[in-house]
Amino acid sequence: MHTLEFAKDVFQTSFLELIYQAHLVHINHHIPNEIQASTLLSVQTGGCSEDCAYCAQSIKNKKKISKQIITDLALIIESAKKAKSMGSSRFCMGTSGRTPNPQIFKIVCDAIKAVKELGLETCVTMGTLIESQVINLSECGLDYYNHNVDTSPEYYNKVITTRTIDERIQTINLLQKYDIKICSGGILGMGETNDDRIKMLLLLANLNEPPASVSINKLVKIPGTRLKNVPDIDPFDFVRCIALARILMPNSVIRISAGRESMSDELQALCFFAGASSIFIGEKLLTTTNSQTPRDLELMQRLNLNLKKSCTE
Ligand code: DTB
């Protein structure tokens, strides 16, 4: 168990010392210069009853996205093949909504089995789960489940009121009981303080087991959402968060997730130095555009970074 005092001390270390220490932890626990890439597909988009202030998919959002479902398995497989050909080693499928309904759950279960056959790792994010759903997912061979804690416990109800952070942790505990690896993290730049950021990272580090993947998003300010005008996070504070995550969770793979499109190449390089070693590649995230693939591949080359191969290569 890490203490809040320790986490605050680390966060407040002088910047260069902090990223140097984080880099040492990184190269002691991970293959240097290796970046893992994941690709997202939104299988069910929009029509969500949750009120997450950052999300375009909430029915409470001013610019409503009508509910869309990809029911054709062949289309999902085609996207997964494309992801693999771009260099992705993990295919992540998302569904909007508080919890998956039986129709979407079946589509995703079939997709997990088909995507695994392509030699890709699988990850899904479908909201709150009950035990029988977790068992079904584990029987399908699901590798990762993404379930973010989003922000600190203290800031949570400023962002989401339709659920509690404890509900999130319950689902995470349930998934860990059935040995499904966890991808969890949150969003930085929603108006929270550095203390909130530290508390969120501490919460992740102090779960029964830290998440295998830690997803750190920089808020994408989507028109129509409550957070559309919130001030930006200081980029160096973002890097400090990556470094703190690296030091608190040495074995986890830290992903710079949403928000890379608005980051400079230099900022991304600092994040990689501080311990991030995963990104999303592909044209789109869920509803927004991602950093474009030619730019990402060029950045990998310029920084002498190698993409991690998928399991069958
Ligand atoms: C995560 O932490 N970030 C991903 C994934 N987990 C599901 C989603 C990013 C979405 C960005 C906004 C959008 O495209 O709507």
List strands and helices in order, with pairings.
Layout lengths: L3 H8 L3 H15 L4 E12 L22 E2 L3 H14 L3 E6 L6 H16 L3 E5 L5 H10 L3 E3 L9 H4 L5 H13 L3 E8 L5 H12 L7 E6 L16 H14 L4 E4 L8 H9 L2 E5 L12 H10 L3 E2 L6
The structure holds 6-(5-methyl-2-OXO-imidazolidin-4-yl)-hexanoic acid.
Describe this structure in words.
- This protein has 313 residues and is α/β, with parallel strands linked by helices.
- It has helices spanning 4-11, 15-29, 73-86, 102-117, 131-140, 156-159, 165-177, 194-205, 235-248, 265-273, 293-302; strands spanning 34-45, 68-69, 90-95, 121-125, 144-146, 181-188, 213-218, 253-256, 276-280, 306-307.
- It has one domain: TIM Barrel (Alpha-Beta Barrel).
- The chain contains eleven helices and ten strands.
- α9 (235-248) links the parallel β7 (213-218) and β8.
- α1 crosses α8 (194-205), α2 packs across α9 and α4 packs parallel to α5 (131-140).
- The protein starts with a helix and ends in a 6-residue tail after the last strand.
- 48% of the residues are buried.
- The structure holds 6-(5-methyl-2-OXO-imidazolidin-4-yl)-hexanoic acid.
- Residues 56, 94, 125, 146, 148, 185, 215, 217, 220, 257-258, 285-288 line the site of 6-(5-methyl-2-OXO-imidazolidin-4-yl)-hexanoic acid (DTB).
Index terms:
binds 6-(5-methyl-2-OXO-imidazolidin-4-yl)-hexanoic acid; globular; TIM Barrel; alpha/beta; 11 helices; 40% helix; 313 residues
